[in-house]
Give the backbone structure.
Amino acid sequence: MRAALALLFVAVLAVVGWLVFGNGDDDPSLPSVPQPSQPAPAEQPNLANGASPDRTDQTPVTQPTTKPVEPETAPQPAPAAPGNVVLAVRDVSSRESVAAFRWRFRSGTADEKGEGTEGRAEILLPTGNAGTLLVEAEGYEPLSRADFTPPAPPSPATTLDLFLVPAARDAGITLHVHDVALQPIPNLRVDAFALTPQNRDGAWWLTPTLWARRNSSANGAYQLPALAPGEYGIRCVAVDEAGELLPLLPFQRTYSLSGTNGFLEDVPLEPGALFALELLDSNNQPYDPAKFGTATLALRFPGGPTVQRKWIVRHEQAEAGAIDVLPGIGVATLAEAIPGGQYQLEVFVNGDPRVQKQLLLRQGTKNVERVLVP
């Protein structure tokens, strides 16, 4: 009986255990392990407005005062040395400034070059040696100035007035004549000479002229009469309105004309001295070559070579000229101005020396000398 009760008690416990713990699954899963909850990401502070990342309150933070950084000052270049040469470049025809030009200076190993605008360039050239200055511009012939010596300090800058000739030239000869102050010569006398093998290498300006012309031009521009193809010598002197010589040195040059070529010349006339000689006989009267003999005249630098010169004697509207000889009775004047300075005058009569005298001819004026011939 007791054994039966014990078996019944065990069966009841088994049924109760099944009811309590059984779930109907053959492979119960392990319980999941709860994970700790992750806090939401905190809002990142805006560092652009200066907030500190370690502060959670809204208390404004005082920023330290900082001194603004001063920008670095670039080093200033040393001032350029002043130029010692000023180029003034103009058109020989219009006298207008050349808009743009190039220059180059060569002296020994030095080779300087640059550009100019509006007819001007202030340049610094090496001093101590002479060199060649070349100026070029579009539409013009190159202009070269040889043996130019730039001034050295403390001398002031040298200004060079340079006139460029247009590359395209008309046939014939055109002269633009002015003095050293660039003032135009309003009255001019021009002599033309035909050159031959006999006179080409000699004093062609003392031979008979092909023609002589006198004209006026307010701007100093003179277009010479047309010349047939050939070789010519051109000589011009400045005169006043009445045709009397002015104390300016003559200009002379030779040209070879083909009939289609042309020349445009810039002609500067430098100051010179005029000279007039009045020879008197023993009675203090004008010397008469027909009565006392041929008077030969020689005017040269002291100790220098003999120079042939043309003398002219005028009587009313007529004039007589001769080379190194008194042409007639009256005051004899040189046919052109000569450089001022010391000269030696010699007078011979029929080859015999009669007078030897030292003269000082002043530049820019007419010098008159009265000489008694014994």
User: Anything to note?
Assistant: The chain has a mean pLDDT of 83. The longest strand covers residues 352-361. Helices lie at 2-21, 289-292. The CA atoms of residues 94 and 355 lie 51 Å apart.
